[in-house]
Amino acid sequence: MSLQSDAVFQKIIDGLKENEAKAKSVNGVFLYKITKDGKVAKEWTLDCKNAKAYEGPAQGVKVDTTLTVADEDMVDIALGKLNPQAAFMKGKLKIAGNIMLTQKLAPLLKTDAKL
Amino acid sequence: MSFRPLVEGDCGGVNPLMQLGGQFTRDVAHKDEGFVQRQFERGARPEDQLINEFLGQVSAPPQSFQMDTLLQEMRDINIQGGMHTQQMHHQQADQWNQDFQRGLAAAVAPPLPNKMIHMQAQQQELQHAQEFFDEPLIRSQNFHQPYMAITAGPSSYQQQQQDPFFDSTMETIITDNLPAAPKGESLDDWITDYQRSAEQKEQTAANFNEKFWQRLQDEWQKLADENEHPWLSEFNDNLDAYKEYEFAEENPMAELENAFEKGKEYLAKGDIPSAVLCFEVAAKKEPERAEVWQLLGTSQAENEMDPQGIAALKRAHDLQPDNRQVLMALAVCYTNEGLQNNAVRMLCSWLAVHPKYQHLVQAHPELQAEGSSLASSLIGPSKLRDLQQIYLEAVRQHPAEVDADIQEALGVLYNLSGEFDKAVDCYNSALQVDPQNAKTWNRLGASLANGSRSVEAVEAYQHALQLQPGFIRVRYNVGVCCMNLKAYKEAVEHLLTALTMQAHTNAARELPAAASMGQNQMSESIWSTVKMVISLMGRSDLQGHVTDRNLAALNEAFND
C-alpha cells in the first residue's frame, strides 16, 4: 500500500546517502510506525548510525526511539506545517524511548529553505 | 484524600446526601480537569436549592405518624448500603491515585468503572425509595400528603418534578434530613469545604502536569549536555567530510586562459554554473590563491551546492584566516547543513577579526574560538545565546547607523536558534542599507519560509530573482516554498528550471562535447526535492526519470 509519507522517507533515504557524516552526527536508530485510519500501516527504520533507512522493522540494530504518527501528520511535519514538538504535545506524535534524539532528527525530516 | 472526612459521617450513619455528594466528588476527580468546575456547579445548585428549601420547610410536615421509626429503618438500610458504596469509593480513589501516578494516559480507564458505581449507588437509592413506598399503604399515604405539601410550595420543585429519578432521590434526601435539621448548617460548610477541595484537586493536577513537563525538560537538558562529548569524535569526522573539493571530471573550460577573470565575468552576467566551471579551472591552476577558492566557494553556495562550497571555502580560510567574507560565507553554509557549532564558531571568529568589534570578544574570553578544534566542539547552546548578546551589543555601539554585516550575522544566529521572526527583522534592516542585494533578499525569504511565513517568503524570493535571474539557490527555495504550500506543479516547474540552468550552462553550450557533462553539475539537493514532490503528486510513472536523472524527459512531461 502506498502512503503519502513514502515520499518523505524516500527523501530521508536520499539525504542520508548524500551526507553520511550528517547522518552519523545524529547517531540514533529510529523506528517510525506510520498509522492510517488508526492502525499501523507501515514501519520505517532510520538507522543514522549506519546512514541508511529502509522499510520495515530494524534489522541488526537496537532501536533507540519509536515514533508513532499518522500518515497525514508525517507529511505535514516534513512540509513544516506541523511543528514536531507541537504534535507531541497534542498527542499526534507519540514517542517512546530516547526523546532527546528526535530533536536532532528534525533537520533530516524537514526541507529547509537555504540562507 | 482530603474529602475522606467529608464522606465519612460525623455521627450516626452516612446519609444519602453525603453519599450523593461523594458520588459527585468521585465523578469530578476522574474526569478531565476542564470538566471539574462545570460538574461541580451542576451538582451544587440543586443541592443548595434543596437545602435552602428544606430549611425553609422544616416546620411544615406534621408529626402525625411514626416518621421516626420509618426513618430509623431507612437509615439502617442506608448504612449497610452506604458502607458498601463508601468502601468501593475508597478503593476507587486509591486505584485512581495509582493510575494517575503511572501516567496521564491511564487515567482514561477509571471513568468507566466509576460510572458503573455511580449508577449502582443511584440504583440503590431508587431501591430504597421504592422499598419505602412499598411499606404498608397507610404509612405511605400519610407520608405522601406532607410530602406533597412540601413539594407543592416552591415552584422550582415543580419544575424538577418532571424528572422521576430526581424525585425519588429528593424524597430520600428530604425524609432523611427531617430530623437532621441542625445538620443544615454543616451542609453549607460542607459545600464550601468541597469547593475548596475541588480547587485543591485541580491545583495538584496542574502542579503534577507542570512537574512532569519540567522533568521532561530537565532530562532533555541533561542529555543535551551529555551528548556533547560523543560529539567530539563526530566533529572530527564531519571535518573530514568536507575536506576535499571534488572537481568536475570533464571541464569544458579546462583550456581557458584567465579562467578567473572569465569566471568573474560570468558572475557579473548572473550565470552562476558557468562561473563555477571557470573558477574550478583557475583553482586547479593556482591552488594557493585564496580569492579563487573564495569565489569558487561562494558561487557554489549560490549554486545550491553547499558541500562543495564548504570544501572550497575551507581552502580559502586556511589560506586567509582573517577574511571576514569567507568566515561569513562559511557560517551560512554550516547553518544550511545543520552544523550549528561550526557556524557559531565562524561567527565568533568573524567578530574577533573585525577591527571595530574585536574588543567585545576580548571582553568575553570564554568565547574565544581560536585554538584547537577540540575546544570548539564543546560549544553548547548557551554559547549561541551569549554570542547573540554580544552581537546585540555591537549593534548598540552605533545605534544611529545600521551595520549591514552585523545584521546579516545576527540573522544567521537567529536562524540557528529558531527565532525566525527576529531574523526577518535583521534582514529587513540590512536591506534598508542595500536594497539591491539579491543575497540578502534570499536570506530574508529563507528566514520567512523557515518561520512558516511561506507567502511572504515568495515575495522576497521574487525580489531576489528580479535582481539576479540566474540565482539557482533562490529558484530552489521557491520550489521548496511551493511544495510546502502544496502547489506541487509549480514546485516541480521551478526546480526543473534550476536544474536545466545547471545542466546547460552557457559555457557548456559553446563547446560541442558538453552534452554528457551536465550530470555532475546538478545539485543533489534539488534532485532529491524533485523526487519528493513527484512522489507527493502521485506521479510514480515519472520516478524512473528522476532516478536516471533524465532531465529532458521530465521537462517534456511538464511542458504541456
UniProtKB/TrEMBL annotation, chain A:
Name of a matching Pfam family: SCP2
Domain SCP2: residue ranges: 9-110
Domain of life: Eukaryota
Gene Ontology CC terms, in alphabetical order: cytosol
InterPro entries associated with the record: SCP2_sterol-bd_dom (IPR003033), SCP2_sterol-bd_dom_sf (IPR036527)
Protein name from the UniProt record: Peroxisomal multifunctional enzyme type 2
Organism encoding this protein: Drosophila kikkawai (Fruit fly)
Gene name per UniProt: LOC108080127
Automatic annotation (TrEMBL), chain B:
Its biological purpose: In addition to promoting peroxisomal translocation of proteins containing a PTS1 peroxisomal targeting signal, mediates peroxisomal import of proteins containing a C-terminal PTS2-type peroxisomal targeting signal via its interaction with PEX7. Interaction with PEX7 only takes place when PEX7 is associated with cargo proteins containing a PTS2 peroxisomal targeting signal. PEX7 along with PTS2-containing cargo proteins are then translocated through the PEX13-PEX14 docking complex together with PEX5.
Keywords: Cytoplasm, Isopeptide bond, Peroxisome, Protein transport, Receptor, Repeat, TPR repeat, Transport, Ubl conjugation
SMART domains: TPR
Similarity comment: Belongs to the peroxisomal targeting signal receptor family.
Gene: Pex5
GO molecular function terms noted in the UniProt entry: peroxisome matrix targeting signal-1 binding
Main localization category: cytoplasm
Natural source organism: Drosophila kikkawai
Pfam families, alphabetized: TPR_11 (PF13414), TPR_8 (PF13181)
Database matches in InterPro entries: PEX5/PEX5L (IPR024111), TPR-like_helical_dom_sf (IPR011990), TPR_rpt (IPR019734)
Annotated PROSITE patterns: TPR (PS50005), TPR_REGION (PS50293)
Biological process per Gene Ontology, one example term: protein import into peroxisome matrix, docking
TPR repeats: 404-437, 438-471
Subcellular location as annotated: Cytoplasm, Cytosol; Peroxisome matrix
Protein name: Peroxisomal targeting signal 1 receptor
One GO CC term on file: peroxisomal matrix
Domain of life: Eukaryota
Keyword Transmembrane: no
